[in-house]
Structure formats: structure tokens, C-alpha cells
Design brief:
2 domains
Length: about 170
């Protein structure tokens, strides 16, 4: 296992291996590898060791590109600002490309949205759940199990009030 200056490369290689072997849709992904920093003169200022590390990593990626027939795209940005601009452009491009993935608005107007939200908030089952959660010592799991056992709040109250109740405080 690599230590010292080469450790970050080993970590990246491990991540790439995991992505390749664990992601079921690896072949369908648009793979872009972004390297920040320039190894050339006049680019982002880096130490000589970092330049050599970036150069070696870039060579490994180019070999990976040849192996996968160009399925992996290598992008290099000179500094943090160009990296940010590149990532923003990728997000915008993905949204425009896959706009079918985003649902169109279910509500034609804001008033319809407000009405739908009020219907959800005023739902009796939600009110029942909230009232159970307000009782000290009842969490999510207990509240949902009570709601399954006693579908209506009246049945739950009757069971609590009955003298032969088997519900423990």
C-alpha cells in the first residue's frame, strides 16, 4: 500500500475501482475526471512534487481512456474558479439534457399548491400522529405501531380509559 506522497493516488484508484465494480450502471455513466491544477508553466502554482504526481496520475488516466475506448473524459482546470465554472456548466448541461427526468409542476397555480398543502396538514391521520408524538416517551416507532393497532384516535382513547387495558404506561 502506498504511503507518503503517492497515497492520494492510491485512494483515487481505489475509488475508481469501487465505482467500476460496484455501480450497476457504470457503463451508462458519462464519466468525467476533473483534475485541478496545471503542470505547465504559467498555470496554477504547484510544487515540483505535486506536478510530478499530477503528471503520473494524468498518464494513468490516459491509459484508462485507451482501455475503455474513450469512455472516460479527462478535463483539466487551472484553478479553483475554473473548476467551479466547469462544474456549474456540467450541472446546467445535465438539467437541459435530461429535462424529462424532472417532473413538471403538479400544480397549475400557487393557490392549488397552498390548497394541497393545507389538505395534507389537516389530514386526520397526520393530526393523530402529531398528537401521539406530543405524548412524552412516544417516538416515531411507537407512534406508527399505535396507529397500526388503533386506526382511530377514539379507539386508542377508549382502550386507554378502560379498566382492563393492557397498554402499559
Amino acid at each position: 500500500k502506498a504511503k507518503g506522497a503517492m497515497y492520494p493516488l492510491t485512494k483515487m484508484e481505489t475509488q475508481m475501482y469501487k465505482l467500476r465494480h460496484c455501480c450497476p450502471e457504470y457503463d451508462k455513466l458519462d464519466r468525467v475526471l476533473l483534475i485541478e491544477g496545471s503542470i505547465y508553466k504559467g498555470g496554477f502554482k504547484m510544487s515540483q512534487v505535486d506536478k510530478k504526481r499530477a503528471w503520473g496520475f494524468r498518464k494513468q488516466i490516459e491509459a484508462e481512456q485507451k482501455e475503455t475506448n474513450g469512455a472516460l473524459r479527462l478535463e483539466t482546470t487551472p484553478d479553483l474558479f475554473k473548476t467551479r465554472d466547469f462544474l456549474v456548466s456540467q450541472i446546467v448541461g445535465a438539467i437541459q439534457k435530461d429535462s424529462a427526468l424532472f417532473e413538471p409542476a403538479k400544480f397549475p397555480t400557487f393557490q392549488h399548491f397552498v390548497q394541497s398543502a393545507e389538505d395534507v396538514v389537516n389530514d386526520p391521520r397526520l393530526q393523530y400522529y402529531v398528537s401521539l408524538r406530543k405524548i412524552e416517551g412516544i417516538g416515531d416507532v411507537a407512534a406508527t405501531s399505535i396507529m397500526k393497532a388503533f386506526p382511530s384516535p377514539l379507539r386508542f382513547k377508549r382502550e386507554l380509559d378502560s379498566p382492563d387495558s393492557n397498554i402499559v404506561d
